[in-house]
Amino acid sequence: MSARPKKSFGQHFLHERRYIERIVSAISPRPDDFIVEIGPGEGALTFPLLAAAGKLTAIELDTDLIPSLQANAAAIGELSIVHADVLKVDFTAMAHRHGVSQLRIAGNLPYYISSPILFHCVDHAAAITDMHFMLQKEVVDRMAAEPGSKVYGRLSVMLQLACRVVPLFDVPPGAFRPPPKVDSSVVRLVPLAAHERHDASPERVHAVVKAAFAQRRKTLGNALRQLMDADAIRRADVDPKARAETLAPEDFVRLAKVNVDQHL
């Protein structure tokens, strides 16, 4: 018997086999991978991933779904279910607790809370090999947007400073039960290696990016005036008359590093 999707949890259960197979193929699970699935739902991805890897940890908030997941997984592999809000799960501690260096994360994310989940995962990027997520297509477009695009913004910059963002393919509403009112996309996120990451204060970068995009029509000189003056912006090799959407991610890092002592 199928579970009734709960609107309060933003549940849309993937059911169309060809898209399930494409997602599993994109993840390419290997035996002994430590895979963590966010929001397994009815197990459409859970069971094929479990069959390929032999074990899997699933994070599920809806207690009504857990008994069926456990029962159906029993003959497939070792399924561990963490009943928790994913935003409260410490992925770094999870990796250490299980004696693995890195996790692989996957999931059909609830669209209403997808950005907070993405930022939470990025906070633990050093403990993650890769991430494969199903998201609203509009969100994936923003994640992968380049400077100058109308959808380039805070999400684009913060994710691209931490990961390589690779959109994979779109999934139509009819592949879900119930069908969402938007198209979906699958995206791959690969955290940058240690030598590729910036060395600026994460808090400072966040503050600069947030202020720069708070009012997109403002020039940087106006948008960042609470953090730095026009001369400081110029010392970062950035034009104070430019607008945030024209800057590359690395430009924000330079802005975050200039005059740090004076403007914290």
From TrEMBL:
The superkingdom listed in its UniProt entry is: Bacteria
Which Pfam families does the record match to this protein? RrnaAD
User: Which InterPro entries does the protein's record reference?
Assistant: KsgA/Erm (IPR001737), rRNA_Ade_diMease-like_C (IPR023165), rRNA_Ade_Mease_Trfase_CS (IPR020596), rRNA_Ade_methylase_Trfase_N (IPR020598), rRNA_adenine_dimethylase (IPR011530), SAM-dependent_MTases_sf (IPR029063)
Catalytic reaction annotation? adenosine(1518)/adenosine(1519) in 16S rRNA + 4 S-adenosyl-L-methionine = N(6)-dimethyladenosine(1518)/N(6)-dimethyladenosine(1519) in 16S rRNA + 4 S-adenosyl-L-homocysteine + 4 H(+)
PROSITE patterns noted in UniProt: RRNA_A_DIMETH, SAM_RNA_A_N6_MT
A cellular component term, taken from the record's GO annotations: cytosol
Which residues of the sequence carry a binding annotation for S-adenosyl-L-methionine? 12, 14, 39, 60, 85, 108
Q: Which residues form the Ribosomal RNA adenine methylase transferase N-terminal domain?
A: 19-193
**Keywords for the protein's UniProt record, in alphabetical order:** Cytoplasm, Methyltransferase, RNA-binding, rRNA processing, S-adenosyl-L-methionine, Transferase
Check the record and name the HAMAP family matching this protein: 16SrRNA_methyltr_A (MF_00607)
According to its UniProt entry, the function of this protein is described as: Specifically dimethylates two adjacent adenosines (A1518 and A1519) in the loop of a conserved hairpin near the 3'-end of 16S rRNA in the 30S particle. May play a critical role in biogenesis of 30S subunits.
Name of the molecule in the record: Ribosomal RNA small subunit methyltransferase A
Q: What is the lineage of its organism?
A: Bacteria, Pseudomonadati, Pseudomonadota, Gammaproteobacteria, Lysobacterales
Name of the gene encoding the protein in the UniProt record = rsmA
